[in-house]
Write the structure tokens for this entry.
Amino acid sequence: MLNIVQADLSQTEHAQAYLHLMSHYALDPMGGGQDLSVFAKKNLIPMLSKRNDIFIVLIFSGNKPAALLTAIEGFSTFACKPLFNIHDLVVYQDFRGQGLTSLLFKKIEEIARLRDCCKITLEVLEGNTIAKNAYSKLGYSDYILDPEFGSAMFWTKSLA
């Protein structure tokens, strides 16, 4: 039996499930192939708990953590409304292919609508065809304002 919840990281079960799934994600090639640092494992839950703009959805299968989605609220200046950016999406390998991604998206879209968000954004690796196909089926696509200028690109600069 699946249990889909908006995480409350003050609950030990939710916090442990979150760290377990994030570690699983980090170790996957799509997550960089290296476990979370000792610093991240120690500080991630306390830091997330201080924020009021982070929304986490967890799925448990029985008492086993099966999937998670982390969304961070941002703001669209053009729409003058909040938006959600899906920052992490993890389905534990034992539960892949069972439609959990769709369930996570359904729940975060419900939360986004309640918060009057204008859109949900996400990043996906160019070579992650499984995720790209799943997101396309859910109605997501690359971001294009004008086809002449192509798709928006997600760039980064590390400050570490």
